[in-house]
From TrEMBL:
Transmembrane segments: none annotated. Residues 153-174 are annotated as: Disordered. This is Phage baseplate assembly protein V. It holds the Pfam family Phage_base_V. Residues 16-81 form the Gp5/Type VI secretion system Vgr protein OB-fold domain. Residues 162-174 have a biased composition (Polar residues). It comes from Sphingobium lignivorans. InterPro entries: Gp5/Vgr_OB, GpV-like_apex, GpV/Gp45, Vgr_OB-fold_dom_sf.
Length: 174
């Protein structure tokens, strides 16, 4: 096919747009390019052995890639900062910012990972256990449904000998 207007063809193939609507069940979005609205289109996501699910947000700026200039077969390429959604960091820190304000930060200079949860909790489901190599500081209450063992001594079943009933106190742990 001979194209008389190669610049127009390139302009039809790659367009700046804004997410206008998102259909989570169909994993599709509608992109507004000026007054033109696309049909429901996929957005770019990791979709192989490693898969991600981070749906776009209405108002998010995207590149609409349209093979052969056909908007009906377009794909929304995400990742463009805008006034509506500016960069979440301005230094070497890697940051993931969630809509509720929760952040996951990694500072490569300090070698420090920080997770800050906005008004919620954290659940770790690890059937084979969790190993922490390093000191642990806990601010707040620690609750265990089974037992706590320190230095081989069970908090749940540990008993002290040579204790008299009444108001006597036990001695310090040995």
């Amino acid at each position: 096919m001979v194209q008389d207007d190669p610049h127009g063809l390139i302009g039809d193939m790659v367009r700046l747009g804004v997410i206008d609507a998102v259909d989570l069940a169909a994993a599709s979005c509608i992109v507004a390019v000026g007054d033109v609205r696309s049909p429901p289109l996929p957005w770019l996501e990791l979709a192989g052995g490693f898969r991600t699910w981070v749906p776009p947000t209405v108002g998010e700026q995207v590149l609409l890639i349209c093979p052969e200039g056909d908007i009906a077969h377009g794909v929304a390429l995400r990742g463009l900062y805008s006034d509506a959604f500016p960069s979440p960091a301005g230094d070497a820190t890697a940051r993931i910012l969630m809509p509720d304000g929760t952040t996951i930060d990694y500072d490569p200079e300090a070698h420090r990972l920080t997770i800050s949860i906005a008004g919620g909790g954290l659940t770790i489901d690890a059937p084979e256990g969790v190993t922490i190599a390093g000191d642990v500081d806990v601010t707040g209450t620690v609750t265990a449904s089974d037992d706590v063992v320190g230095g081989g001594i069970s908090l749940k079943t540990h008993r002290h000998g040579n204790v008299q009933s009444g108001s006597s106190q036990t001695g310090s742990p040995v």
